[in-house]
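Researcher: Next sequence.
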Amino acid sequence: MNSYRSLMALLVSTLLGLGAVGLLSRWMQQQMAAQTMDVVVAAHDIPVGTRLQEGMLKSVRWPSATPIKDPLNNLQAAVGRVVNMAVFQDEPLVLGKLAPVGEKGGLSAQIRDGQRAVTVKVNEVIGVAGFALPGNFVDVMVNTTDQLNHPLSKIVLERIQVLAVAQDITTPEGKPKVVNAVTLEVSPAQAEAIDLARSIGTLSLVLRNQRDPAGAVTPGARKDDLLRTAWQPPTRSTPPPLRVKLPATALVPAPQPPVTPIIRGLTLSAE
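Model: Next structure:
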């Protein structure tokens, strides 16, 4: 009888414990749900200019303690929109990375208001051939001739953002294949300068630090600058004349002997 009562007491205790665990788990889930929110994230990397489809996105619970500025909370609100900045896998989708409603995809979605896109042919990206990627900043340099028909290289535009690069970065050798076409985002005045520069010479791009906004004023490089060397051969010069320092007394005029006038008749003389 005592064993039966002990077994029943154990069973009741177990049921009560399971019920308490269930209630605690449900309460914790409710608390967690209250501290999170639905956020739309990228299911995989999405290139810039892509029109979003359902398979590209997913909805996840995001901690409210880590706020996001202007997130998208509904998949349907994101479908059909165009991204104007690259989005990486599991990155939250925010309004700042979306083009206005109705915007078509492609390169035009990447251009900011008031800017233009111009594609130029260049001979190389100096020092890092092929590694100027979309989002990088470059300087535009032209190789031409000056007013005296002398060769001249000069930076004509600084800190220009790259929108697209016509190159294949998946070659078997693992090296970029440069095809000499780069699309840049410029102002209307800069587009005119590039058009003039490529008509009078050859364009090159100089890759610059993303965090360096400072400009540089240079006179340009000429042929004479390349051939000039810092070392100059010694020249034979005429030695300076010998200078002798005389005592101060040597500079005083010698005293003259006294002169005595003598009168001889009508003639006056001195001795």
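Model: Residues 223 and 229 are 12 Å apart (CA to CA). The first strand starts at residue 36 and ends at 42.
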